[in-house]
């Protein structure tokens, strides 16, 4: 099968013919229909993700059709499925308490084992997967493995965002735009922050209430727009400037959710703990989503209450993944790229 393989950090991926994956006893092999290109893939590509080593096949936001199923699998040939990027064991204390996204024994295709920048991907523990709803495009569904699910859990499972509250979103890349769209669908008033005017204009065109160009006056402008500060603020980049901007823009007793991944040189950073102390703020970390929460998210989408299609900017070929990853080295344009052509 064709696959895009990491051979050298910060260099074009190698398009190679590699062996097709073996079928997991407790899982399936999917023919990949669509796979998103995510900033987390970029962290591995540049060598800052501690788990991604040369030889890795990346790609963790995928949707596919079952071509082979193991004897203990729950799904069968022909089923179209979406998968969270964290494949939980289902038996550890975290899983038994409903927190599969903090499973103590995680399987991670695209990070620790071959991912979906390939024609086929092996997916063990298929109890984590969900059926692709009728009428939902596989291209849109690819983001349900990481960006959209993480955003949904950040707002509902961590911050408990309520209708009428102000939500500030710092960074309008894939996960930030997902957060803004979902927050708007939940009835929140949304202000977005970015350094790219085109992305701010795009967000405003999708119904966001306000947009702020990131700079020295970001916090003051958000406080003015929201009448005293956001109730919930989501940081979607994982860098010190936006982390501290997110904390400082909150009103008293506000909730900060760390969605952007601090890794590599940003794994440790200076954080304004005085803002946390003085404002009686709550800080939440979040990563992924428990698989049992798929129905709530899929129901919101299939009912027409939120349209995630504007998240997709372009469909690309497997050979284009390197260029998409390199684009993350600087400011990006609105929307995300999804691989849908695995023959080129």
Automatic annotation (TrEMBL):
UniProt xrefs under Gene3D superfamilies: Medium-chain alcohol dehydrogenases, catalytic domain
Superkingdom of the organism of origin: Bacteria
SMART domains: PKS_ER (SM00829)
Domain Enoyl reductase (ER): 4-339
Cytoplasm as UniProt keyword: no
UniProt keyword terms in alphabetical order: Metal-binding, Oxidoreductase, Zinc
Alphabetical list of SUPFAM superfamilies matching this protein: GroES-like (SSF50129), NAD(P)-binding Rossmann-fold domains (SSF51735)
Cofactor or coenzyme needed: Zn(2+)
A Pfam entry, by short name: ADH_N
Presence of keyword Zinc: yes
InterPro entries listed in its UniProt record: ADH-like_C, ADH-like_N, ADH_Zn_CS, ER, GroES-like_sf, NAD(P)-bd_dom_sf, Zn_alcohol_dh
PROSITE patterns per UniProt: ADH_ZINC
UniProt cross-references to PANTHER family, sorted A to Z: ALCOHOL DEHYDROGENASE-RELATED, L-THREONINE 3-DEHYDROGENASE
UniProt family annotation: Belongs to the zinc-containing alcohol dehydrogenase family.
The name this protein goes by in its record: Alcohol dehydrogenase catalytic domain-containing protein
Organism of this sequence: Jannaschia ovalis
